[in-house]
Amino acid sequence: MQALNRTAMGVALGLTCIAYAAPSLASDAQSVVQQQLNAYNAHDIRAFMATYDPGAEVVEFPAKPLMKGAAQIQEFYETKRFNDPRLHATVDKRIVMGNVVIDYEQILNTQAAGPGRMEAIAIYEVNDGKITKVTLIRGSASLDKQ
């Protein structure tokens, strides 16, 4: 009986340690994603890429590959996003669980027909302090009223 109590105590202590570790992992992941968002809004490609793992991938939900590796990610954002002076994202909602951060974003941008905005959900997976995967869900896009 006493051995059973020690085993139960060890399991309880182990679970307590896991519970204490989880907030740190979540805050680390959230911090990396926030740094990435800040760099995105500053159009700072170096700071932006510093948040990505060299082998990171970007996919469109559910699993359509868009970009693989730091070189493709950098080329896309440098030539197709950060050259838009209007580009700016705000996070309306953020969910953090362990190493996963889910942002619901509103993005101001310039579309083919003029200034506009779009909504998106970005699901970031962070490992060892770097973004290793982003899954994008693109929402509606609209033009600003003039």
Automatic annotation (TrEMBL):
<protein>
    <submittedName>
        <fullName>Nuclear transport factor 2 family protein</fullName>
    </submittedName>
</protein>
<feature type="signal peptide">
    <location>
        <begin position="1"/>
        <end position="21"/>
    </location>
</feature>
<dbReference type="Pfam" id="PF12680">
    <property type="entry name" value="SnoaL_2"/>
</dbReference>
<keyword id="KW-0732">Signal</keyword>
<feature type="domain" description="SnoaL-like">
    <location>
        <begin position="33"/>
        <end position="133"/>
    </location>
</feature>
<dbReference type="InterPro" id="IPR037401">
    <property type="entry name" value="SnoaL-like"/>
</dbReference>
<dbReference type="InterPro" id="IPR032710">
    <property type="entry name" value="NTF2-like_dom_sf"/>
</dbReference>
